[in-house]
Automatic annotation (TrEMBL):
This is Biliverdin-producing heme oxygenase. Residues 1-29 are annotated as: Disordered. InterPro entries: Haem_Oase-like_multi-hlx (IPR016084). Residues 1-11 have a biased composition (Basic and acidic residues). It comes from Phenylobacterium kunshanense. SUPFAM superfamilies: Heme oxygenase-like (SSF48613). CDD domains: HemeO-bac.
Amino acid sequence: MSPIRPNDKPAGDSGAHRRLREATQSQHEALERRTDVIGRLLTPRGRREVVAGFHRLHAGLEDGIAVWLAGDHALDFDARRRTVLLEADLGVVGGRAQAVSDAPIANGRGEALGQLYVLEGSALGGKVIRKAVLQQGGDLAGLSFLDPYGDALAVRWRAFLAVVGREADIDPMVAGARAAFAYAESCLAQEAAVV
Ligand code: HEM
């Protein structure tokens, strides 16, 4: 499937968000191209791999992000954690958790926000992925992590971007986002899959 380009849209909010989108656009496109998430979700083995890969991604980053962002009430970080949801999804698909020792560690609030940008943005793509899976005859068993907020998705995304937009120093956020996209690719790559 040809990449869907979220970054073609106008940013509409802050310069910080625009920088994050522009700095990671090629990584997002490469991730879509190289990981074939939608195609793999259509077979039981591929689905186990993909859910395990997303579990590794979230389990690897969330605790490090929490060190810097757990106390930020505007973010409500604990409600954004998805590792527990992914553990339940792993149980549904019969997959098992992988080691997370190679995750990038956020060295400050800016890097943590950049990493969280990647995790939160994946929920936007998650809606699109679920729809594509249904259109191609698949079901949604074990894919609740792709729709963590239901109807509140847009509200949660805007609240996150508002926090990003108030951040004075953009460079650390960009560094965190780029590191998190690289880690996402290593978690979701087919050759990294353990089932
Ligand atoms: C086949 C897989 C994927 C597809 C089809 C996809 C598609 C999309 C789409 C359509 C959007 C824009 C949604 C909107 O503006 O309402 C989006 C946004 C985003 N996605 Fe993906 N995505 C995929 C995988 C991922 C993954 C695995 C990650 C990260 C782990 C990710 C990170 C992001 C981010 C950070 C954004 C926000 C971009 C912005 O700032 O506007 N995506 N994705």
